[in-house]
Amino acid sequence: GELRDLGRLPCPMVRRKGERGFTRVSWDAALGLIADRIRASSPDRLGFYMTSRGQPNENYYAAQKMARAIGTNAIDNAARVCHAPSTAGLKEAVGVAATTCSYEDWIGSDLVVFIGSNVANSQPVSMKYLY
What we know:
This protein is mostly helical. It has three domains: 1-40, no CATH class; 43-99, no CATH class; 101-131, no CATH class. It has helices at residues 2-5, 27-40, 57-70, 78-94, 103-106, 119-122; strands spanning 13-14, 23-24, 48-50, 75-77.
């Protein structure tokens, strides 16, 4: 119910050529269809795009390994587009287009403040430095 309350579909849906609308299918059928389409395509015609919301780096690592095993280097995520302005701003403001602190800076801190971020969700590796 929670995902449906968020407006998400509770099951895979497929739209088939010549049919009106979408048809509910099982996960096995949906994944089989995806696998068939990947096999039928050439690697230079495949691309993968991931969300940047709430994904740990391990998910991106696994996804890029899978994409490269299939034979494509075409993998991207929303963070590159989303954070391009902030990296340009950091480069202009502080001379470096990256974060200005490291995990080591957190160790021994009495207070670390996050605004608008669920660190456990968006940066799970960071959590080990906060306890």
